[in-house]
């Protein structure tokens, strides 16, 4: 989850720019790079040099606990706890286990995370209610469960369609300008396309589970109608 943080102090003594390995000071940070611009040779060389310095640093120097680090850690913990206890943090924490959303229930928080509006589900619930015309509160509860299950069934195929469109656009962006492909490049692209169907199998499994649930709800609705007709 996203929380405000306090930057911990840099390794080394306060007020110095000593590198992690104890050698010469690191070069000043370059100006921010414009997004999408390729790195220059000088920038690549500087990044490689910094990476080598980081790898060469002794572990006891990298991970040593200093007074400034302990203070920064305590401040970060207090900020995290305060944010977690806030209404916004509490609402966000409810989505910590959220992954793809294929099996998500139709709670307001999850609908918002999936880009769905409450009005969309309300219209779907009204549609299902108009089809079956519930007679009492028990049938109304069954109709609401049916609307939720069928809405989730619609959602998973919509999500799969979005996933596949995004994957094809990403492949095209990686491909670059049109040119003759080597056999290795063709094989790699074929492999990337085949990976799309791994997600499709997840969708089919979840759809099958939801279809079983829908059948059970429909059977319960019919039993409720039979009982109601027998009581007349």
Residue share in helix: 55-70%
Average pLDDT for all residues: 76
Biggest beta sheet attributes: none
The tally of helices reads: 8
Give the amount of beta strand, in percent.
Answer: under 5%
Q: Any idea what the radius of gyration is?
A: 28 Å
Sum up the overall morphology in one term.
Answer: flat
**Would you list the SSEs in sequence order as H and E?**
HHHHHHHH
For the termini, the CA-CA separation is 56 Å
Low-confidence runs: 1-23
Class computed from helices, strands and strand pairing: mainly alpha
Number of E-type strands: 0
Could you please describe the fold and organization of this structure?
There is one protein chain. The protein has 232 residues and is mostly helical. Helices cover 67% and strands 0% of the residues. The chain contains 8 helices and no strands. The longest helix has 49 residues, at 183-231. Mean pLDDT is 76; it is low at 1-23.
């Amino acid at each position: 989850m996203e929380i405000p943080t306090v930057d911990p102090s840099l390794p080394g003594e306060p007020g110095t720019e000593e590198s992690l390995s104890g050698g010469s000071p690191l070069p000043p940070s370059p100006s921010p790079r414009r997004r999408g611009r390729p790195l220059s040779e000088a920038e690549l060389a500087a990044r490689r040099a910094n990476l080598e310095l980081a790898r060469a640093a002794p572990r006891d120097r990298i991970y040593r606990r200093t007074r400034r680090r302990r203070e920064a850690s305590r401040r970060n913990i207090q900020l995290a706890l305060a944010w977690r206890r806030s209404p916004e943090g509490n609402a966000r924490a409810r989505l910590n286990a959220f992954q793809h959303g294929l099996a998500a229930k139709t709670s307001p928080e999850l609908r918002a995370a999936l880009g769905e509006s409450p009005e969309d589900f309300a219209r779907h619930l009204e549609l299902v209610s108009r089809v079956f015309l519930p007679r009492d509160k028990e049938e109304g509860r069954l109709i609401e469960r049916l609307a939720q299950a069928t809405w989730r069934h619609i959602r998973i195929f919509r999500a799969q369609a979005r996933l596949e469109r995004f994957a094809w656009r990403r492949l095209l962006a990686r491909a670059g300008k049109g040119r003759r492909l080597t056999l290795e490049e063709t094989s790699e692209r074929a492999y990337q396309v085949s990976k799309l169907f791994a997600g499709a199998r997840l969708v089919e499994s979840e759809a099958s589970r939801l279809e079983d649930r829908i059948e059970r709800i429909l059977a319960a609705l019919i039993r409720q109608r039979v009982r109601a007709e027998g009581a007349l």
